[in-house]
Design brief:
Blueprint (H helix, E strand, L loop, with lengths): L1 H4 L2 H9 L9 H44 L3 H8 L3 H5 L10 E3 L8 E3 L12 H7 L9 E3 L4 E3 L1 H7 L8 E4 L3 E7 L5 E7 L7 H12 L9 E7 L2 E7 L6 H6 L10 H20 L15 E3 L5 E3 L4 H5 L19 H6 L4 H17 L15 H10 L17 H14 L10 H9 L2 H21 L7 H15 L1
Parallel strand pairs: 4-8
Antiparallel strand pairs: 1-2, 3-4, 5-6, 6-7, 7-9, 8-9, 10-11
Helix pairs in contact: 10-13, 10-16, 13-15, 15-18, 17-18
The protein binds adenosine-5'-triphosphate.
Adenosine-5'-triphosphate binds next to strand 5, strand 7 and strand 9.
Membrane topology: Single-pass membrane protein
Protein name: non-specific serine/threonine protein kinase
GO cellular component, one term: plasma membrane
Length: 480
């Protein structure tokens, strides 16, 4: 019997017998059963795997929601630790925006062309206004390495909701509001316009570079706000107006700005700019030195404002700009002509500013008679004609000594040398302004010699020989 079971012929016979299931042969039925079993096993296996994957998914979801809930402060900290020097040459800087400047005395709008490439929303005044009050996500207070990141809500509260009555001025970069923070600090909040070219990250990087700059003769940046289309800068409030107001405003017959005060202002400005040019790496070229950018405190100390803003708003990889920016009358000729920017362009503007402070005149004034419209040309002519004393602002209560006048005129004229390479550096200017008589006499003698030889070769010089001549004779006069 056992033998017959393992006999292949009998097995074949058994398997080939038809069964009661649709008369199918036994081996077919067995095959179908085995196949079904395999299919069922596979089905359960896949069910098992799917349920395991589903069980893992919620863990991913938890992580993702945790990331969303992470306070943005962590992102801030990451960005802050990036060294500014590295960021300056960041390869992913946006393409330099084309800039268009409408030049005017108090109003010069800086406009970006439409080809600005940025992922940032295009902020216009109306857009930013409509953004107000939106539930922006952001921390109430974030401490930066150098200052604070303010929320829009915080700055709106400080400025009465960016109220008209808090407006203290409007410049080419935006509207400035006065405000008081919750801790009682008085601040100036600059709501930047034309921020379309600046993506949030680049804005932060640039602001943080400016924010780290500290000097008693530079207006201090306390922090910033970047929410949606808003870009705001928060500065220390400087409480005695700007130089333009004190020189050209209605101050009566006699200006409170005595000669000594004016000289102190010039020295303060020089120190602030020397720090930007010579005390920082990379150096900062201001690009828009003018009287309205010089703020004064109650002791008549001057603080240079708006430094770094040009870079902030117009990211460039090179120092050759497509359009020149600056203010009419202050812009150095080589910068106006070629767009080539160096700190020597600031020196030129500084020279113009000295002339404005001494004379009380605007750099360009069309209300004056022909020959007096352009301050530099008029001053050179006056000095050349040995009429230096006549250039002094008649509102100065007591005129300066001849020596003091010649000293500062000499500095101013050297600063506006048409040849940028011949203009002195800021550090040197400080020495010239502070130097003792002996040093000055040396400078003047050298200037005389240089001019004598230069005059021989070229008809027009940057410093009239008369300055040097009269300086020399005046210093001997003063010595007497
Ligand atoms: N930190 C500050 N403290 C007090 N007043 C300020 C401060 N910053 C700016 N202001 C005032 O706000 C006004 C506008 O300043 P802003 O620098 O925007 O314009 P501007 O200097 O007139 O022109 P531009 O923007 O073209 O340089 C000026 O009258 C200035 O005195």
């Amino acid at each position: 019997m056992t033998m017959s079971i393992f006999n292949p012929d009998s097995i074949n016979n058994e398997l080939s017998k038809p069964t009661s299931i649709f008369g199918l042969k036994l081996w077919v039925v067995i095959g179908i059963l085995l196949g079904s079993l395999i299919v069922i096993a596979l089905f359960f296996l896949s069910l098992c795997l799917t349920s395991r994957r589903r069980n893992r998914k919620p863990r991913h979801a938890d992580f993702a929601s945790a990331a969303v809930a992470t306070p943005p402060i962590s992102k801030e900290i990451q960005e802050i630790v990036r060294p500014p020097a590295q960021d300056h040459c960041h390869p992913t800087q946006p393409v330099a925006a084309e800039i268009q400047v409408d030049i005017g005395k108090t109003e010069h709008r800086v406009v970006f062309s439409d080809r600005v490439s940025s992922g940032e929303s295009r902020g216009t005044v109306s857009e930013t206004a409509s953004y107000s009050g939106s539930g922006c996500v952001g921390p109430e207070v974030s401490h930066l390495g150098w200052g604070r990141w303010y929320t829009l809500r915080e700055l709106e509260a400080a400025t009465n909701g960016l109220c008209e009555e808090n407006v203290i001025g409007e410049g080419g970069y935006g509207i400035v509001y006065s405000g008081i923070l919750t801790d009682g600090t008085k601040v100036a909040v600059k709501n930047l316009l034309n921020n379309r070219g600046q993506a949030e990250k680049e804005f932060r990087v640039e602001v943080e570079a400016i924010g780290r700059v500290r000097h008693k003769n530079l207006v201090r940046l306390l922090g910033y706000c970047v929410e949606g289309a808003y870009r705001m800068l928060v500065y220390d409030y400087v409480d005695n107006g700007n130089l333009e107001q004190w020189i050209h405003g209605d101050v009566g017959d006699k200006s409170p700005l005595t000669w000594d005060i004016r000289m102190n202002i010039i020295l303060c400005m020089a120190k602030g700019l020397a720090y930007l040019h010579e005390g920082l790496e990379p150096k900062v070229v201001h690009r828009d030195i003018k009287s309205s950018n010089i703020l004064l405190d109650r002791q008549w100390n001057a603080k240079v404002s708006d430094f770094g803003l040009a870079k902030l708003l117009f990211s460039e990889s090179s120092y050759v700009t497509t359009r020149v920016m600056g203010t009419f009358g202050y812009v150095a000729p080589e910068y106006a002509c070629t767009g080539m920017l160096t700190e020597k362009s600031d020196i030129y503007s500084f020279g113009i500013l000295i002339m404005e402070i001494i004379t009380g005149r605007n750099p360009v004034d069309y209300s004056r008679p022909q020959g007096e419209v352009n301050l530099v040309e008029w001053l050179k002519t006056m000095v050349g004609n040995r009429r230096s004393e006549e250039v002094v602002d008649p509102k100065i209560p007591e005129p300066p000594t001849s020596k003091a006048l010649k000293r500062v005129l000499l500095v101013a004229l050297r600063c506006v040398d048409p040849d940028a390479n011949k203009r002195p550096k800021m550090g040197h200017i400080i020495h010239m302004l502070e130097a003792e008589d002996l040093f000055y006499r040396d400078q003047e003698r050298r200037a005389t010699r240089e001019h004598a030889s230069r005059d021989f070769n070229q008809p027009r010089t940057e410093i009239s020989p008369a300055v040097a001549e009269t300086s020399e004779s005046d210093s001997s006069k003063d010595r007497r």
